[in-house]
Amino acid sequence: MPRKKFIEEDSNSSDDGSKSVPGRRLFRVFRLLSSPNASKSHRVKKNGRSFIPSDGLRDERLESMHLYYSNFVAPVDDDLARGIKVLDVGCGGGGWLMDMASDYPNSEFVGTDIVDLFLKHGTPPQNCKFMLANTVKGLPFEDNTFDFVHQRSVLLLMVFDFSPSDWATAMKEMIRVTKPGGWIQITEGDIIIERSGPLMKRFLEAAEAISKSRGVDVRVVRNLGSLFSSLDNVEVDCVSCPTGWQDKWGDMALQNLLGFVKATRAGVMPILNITDKEFEDMVSKMAQECKEYKSLGSLPYAFGQKKRA
Ligand SMILES: C[S@@+](CC[C@H](N)C(=O)[O-])C[C@H]1O[C@@H](n2cnc3c(N)ncnc32)[C@H](O)[C@@H]1O
């Protein structure tokens, strides 16, 4: 799906008259991806540093993330229709790949991930393959292989799981395998929640404290431009997303956020010094808070073109 559809609404005011962050755009999802074969079990290879466990909650999160975002913003629609090589780094269940491979049958799609969650969305089309690969350890492709390299909702996880030098290496790898003149796009989620209530604030502080204690920096997603400094025609922006209010997309954004909160349970509970029961109560109260405060999630993205030789 091309850019026009990614941002469906370009406005600072919502249906009920409340204001979003000036200069930012609200966007809505317009396509649902059904996954009749979705499975609750998958393997997640630990790198020893993750504080997000490999359980069903993470699985649901991946699902809703696909529903939450659209497919691309980089100006590659005509190239995709004509037929190009596309890489999706950290592809998870492959929802993006399946969708894109069906929409653009002339293009070839490859997905990589450190875990094999592929096939979660059913049998892939013939123009779509999966390979196990840790981006930080090096992508298993020659230099200048792909016309479009895409990564969605991976960096934040990497921020929690990897050091700043690891994610710099990952970006270098993505640039290396992109052809001169090819495009790279990163779409992320941030742990900033604007207009958040007191419980959400407390949770976000705890999540940030965990990251700090592990020597990683969650703010990297707020500075995607620095990762794209060697590229041409860079666009860096951030969209605000109603979370828990406005419409069904707001409800979906809330489910996505709560999935993240639940996934961090083991790390966050000791910091907040709360019991299981108190954690459960906190999560349901956070949902109410988001509605009450009209909270806004933050979705940074960037794309750019590799310099021609
Ligand atoms: C939140 S999921 C997003 C999946 C998919 N991009 C999407 O938007 O639906 C993050 C994915 O990044 C993968 N991941 C994290 N670190 C990675 C690394 N170093 N190399 C490859 N994949 C990685 C995880 O295994 C997980 O599948």
Automatic annotation (TrEMBL):
<dbReference type="Pfam" id="PF13649">
    <property type="entry name" value="Methyltransf_25"/>
</dbReference>
<keyword id="KW-0489">Methyltransferase</keyword>
<dbReference type="InterPro" id="IPR041698">
    <property type="entry name" value="Methyltransf_25"/>
</dbReference>
<dbReference type="GO" id="GO:0008168">
    <property type="term" value="F:methyltransferase activity"/>
</dbReference>
<feature type="region of interest" description="Disordered">
    <location>
        <begin position="1"/>
        <end position="21"/>
    </location>
</feature>
<keyword id="KW-0808">Transferase</keyword>
<protein>
    <submittedName>
        <fullName>S-adenosyl-L-methionine-dependent methyltransferase</fullName>
    </submittedName>
</protein>
<dbReference type="InterPro" id="IPR029063">
    <property type="entry name" value="SAM-dependent_MTases_sf"/>
</dbReference>
<feature type="domain" description="Methyltransferase">
    <location>
        <begin position="86"/>
        <end position="182"/>
    </location>
</feature>
<dbReference type="GO" id="GO:0032259">
    <property type="term" value="P:methylation"/>
</dbReference>
